[in-house]
Amino acid sequence: MQDDRDRPLRSRAWFDNSDDPGMTALYLERYLNFGLSREELQSGRPIIGIAQTGSDLSPCNRHHLVLADRIREGIRDAGGIAIEFPVHPIQETGKRPTAGLDRNLAYLGLVELLYGYPLDGVVLTIGCDKTTPALLMAAATVDIPAIALSVGPMLNGRSGNRLIGSGTIIWEARQKLAAGEIDDAQFFDLVAASAPSTGYCNTMGTATTMNSLAEALGMQLPGSAAIPAPYRQRQEMAYRTGKRAVDLVREDLRPSKILTRAAFLNAIVVNSAIGGSTNAPIHIAAIARHMGVDLSIDDWHTAGLDVPLLVNMQPAGRYLGEDFYEAGGVPAVLGQLLDAGLIDGSPITVTGKTIDTNYRGKTTLLPDVIRAIDDPLMEKSGFVVLSGNLFDSGILKTSVISQTFRKRFLSDPDDPDAFEGRAIVFEGPEDYHARIDDPGLEVTESDILVMRWCGPIGYPGAAEVVNMRPPEYLLKAGIRELPCLGDGRQSGTSGSPSILNVTPEAAAGGNLAIIRTYDRLRVDLRNRRVDLLLDEAEIESRRTEMRRSIDAHVPRSQTPWQEIQRHSIGGLASGAILEGSETFQRIDTDRGLPRDSH
Ligand code: FES
Ligand code: MG
């Protein structure tokens, strides 16, 4: 095998430092105690970390505990030595008050591990929503050779002959429960049916989105993202990924060569074509900032809005993960986008080859699941990036706006892209749950539900609470959805027509903090504006008042990390990263090795 590197492996500074055998002995000694030999550790073979995100606490990624065996065998067969270690678990559905708190924590922890231990390269075991960005963010900061392996989605959920998608069914069944159409037992049965095997959400939620984008960014082997977790092909991919990790080290192929602006712009286009999650702009911004790539929320509008929707998966469409895989997965999407000239074929990927070489000619195998590009589900399926006197930026996912919603809200022939409505304001999800069904609130079918104090500082962590169902009495009258707006996030599995990720958040002094129930709002999609219909003087006087009361609405921190993160976290529009942490870039090449420990 060819060795292109002109630097020694970084692990040799620990295990084979001829200038200081005393330190080498100290480092070696404790890696020998579980059976690795001196002969192996001093053989000059690359040491490849397996950053393990699976555990009993994080069921979506738990199958990585099994896949790690195949990753190890791949690493061995290619001449490397595997060292597996745990990453701070992030379980989207299990962590209170929100898994949104933990992405940056896992990121920080992994940076320390990748930089401070004798690792030459790493396999990133990605899966559940925030595990993918956390690991890619860390690989970007350290900039050591890295390759990601998706754990894969669960098998399709079914109830009778109906496809039941994880997450999506919860939002739908909650409405049915509220409308009295199903009872508690039927509710739990539907939810259990949606999760029939190991793996992450089988819908096009944040997990499938981020795993697909990790492949589109060039950080996974082609075809890797969509393979369902229990399939044999998933094991095979784990083996090939382990093998390839060793060669990445030999070729010195680092994330900085892969994660370029062109690669990120491709990811934005792909996100539209797959009907990807509204969490993607947050995570993609975070990865780009840690890589030092200039990318703004407006790039989502410019590059992403006019892209056709190809993937027919819930919540925007019908199908689930197994279908996406059988239809050709991410390659079928990239191949078609390449053909149509919608993405750039030049970025290098972990294969050492370009996107063009890897994906040219790939196309859909099941045109109902992945549509042909000249027969899309929707012509323009990206996010509308909005601003106005209420906030600097918020996004609306157009691919989930239903026809009934369009008819009710966007049908004025004189003004087809705009609507006005009264705001019904909730001070957080507790307030919403307590009052939404109160007839005294007098919510009508043309109102807008507003949720605040739910951003990175306010919640804290930015919770997925902005998707709100209408009150029971409207559901019973057939009104299934109302527009929502808020400074929190929304689950990628939700199809609510919502203006999300509003920045600045109320807790940071954004004007969302001054809005009152029954104020009027105007949403104008063509001009990309959302405005609070109040005059300047009223806005100013409310702002003065708001500054005095803001603390009363922000809960106190319950843990040290909540408190620490609140002091330095930025807004959702710029990735909600720890501000200042992005100045640490490419630290493995730019900051030298860390000092000896003793
Ligand atoms: Fe983990 Fe959906 S909850 S992937
Ligand atoms: Mg989520």
Automatic annotation (TrEMBL):
EC number: 4.2.1.9
Keywords for this protein: Iron, Iron-sulfur, Lyase, Metal-binding
Gene Ontology molecular-function annotations: dihydroxy-acid dehydratase activity; iron-sulfur cluster binding; metal ion binding
Gene3D superfamilies given in the database record: IlvD/EDD C-terminal domain-like
Domain of life: Bacteria
The Dihydroxy-acid/6-phosphogluconate dehydratase C-terminal domain, residue ranges: 368-576
Membrane-crossing residue ranges in chain numbering: none
Domain Dihydroxy-acid/6-phosphogluconate dehydratase N-terminal: 45-357
Family (UniProt): Belongs to the IlvD/Edd family.
Protein's name in the database: Dihydroxy-acid dehydratase
Provenance organism: Qipengyuania pelagi
